[in-house]
Design a protein that fits this description.
CATH class of the largest domain: Alpha Beta
Strand content: 5-15%
Number of domains: 3
CATH architecture of the largest domain: 2-Layer Sandwich
Order of helices and strands: EEHEEEHEHEHHEHHHHHHHHHHHHH
Number of helices: 18
CATH superfamily of the largest domain: Ribonuclease H-like superfamily/Ribonuclease H
Radius of gyration: 25 Å
Number of strands: 8
CATH topology of the largest domain: Nucleotidyltransferase, domain 5
Helix content: 40-55%
Amino acid sequence: MPPEDLPLLSAPAEGLPEVVDTPAGLRAAVSGLGAGTGSVAVDAERASGFRYGQRAFLVQLRREGAGTVLIDPEPFSSLAILDDALRGTEWVLHAATQDLPCLAELDMRPDALFDTELAARMLGYDRFGLAAVVGETVGVRLAKEHSAVDWSTRPLPESWLNYAALDVEVLLEVADVLDGQLHARGLAEYAQQEFEHLLGFAPPVRDEPWRRMHGLGTLRSPRQLARARELWTVRERVAEAEDVAPSRLLRDRDITALAGATLRTADDVFRTLGTGRLTRRDARRWLDAVRHADSLPQDALPPRRAPGDRSRPRTDRTDVKERTAAMREAMYELAERTGIPHDLLLQPALVRALAARPDLAPSGSSGLLEPVRGFLAGEDARAWQTELSAPVLARALEAVPGV
């Protein structure tokens, strides 16, 4: 049945619960959830694009015997009391890597989890957004028009709260269906290894996060990179102080435009970016950042490449291209045989990194199998990924001339 023909789930079956925003309300919610049974569905809403950082502005939970609970985390410095009540309980989340960091900021960390998005991907679902997976598994339609709203708004509109409550209302049933499908396909053990791996998930901490800006490759000189770095640093400092998303102050493309422009006065900033939402104060701030970068001595300028980019030994480009193509084709064939998407069988970045290793050498009768296994183990591949992928990758490499 097409998604638009599925019955629309428009309101929580048990009515919309009051939002918990007082210590007394939190204690009552904790008591109810702690007395519930089975897994707990967990979701969080952030204000990405509106506020600084990725903190949660609403936490939704649902558990058998406790119903749905909506918590406004802003009045609380921690939700550790809730975390304690759920110790040993499996959490069911959709796209866990999105929510785990902001929940950890509230001192909430699961002991076990089931990720419905990851399960759907492993099962080869064509679409694995929550609404699509809900429609495919339990046959109802979720409205998603509030997915990108500013969840820091207070008070939260009732229609938004309905949306948030419905996200967890169906999640436990979805997990049961997916779990049955994983077992039927013989994928349950693989999925479990992935879920256990997610328990240790944390966003990567980068030595030079400014290098993640879009469009940085258009800048040609170390001086221009210094300008971009300084603009990014000032933007972050102001955004944090004002609790606003950095992109609302200055977009990445604005930073690269300023870094490559000739700037002598605030008017030059306006000419480069347009007046738009820029104030005179804004223009002077960005001009001061550029001037500071321009005053740096040559030895304080950033190199074109991040320091770690050359840390690994390099292989001839042509050889790398041939190895990568051979291994990629082998992984696609493995994906066809297993029904598991190739990027879940093994992250494409690992295939590329393996292709770039010039130090691979056959190991006795096992050929390249043991070196490949050792490489994958060192790169934190899960046991199931190594079991399936290592023999395929080793054979593909051995078939490349010159290896």
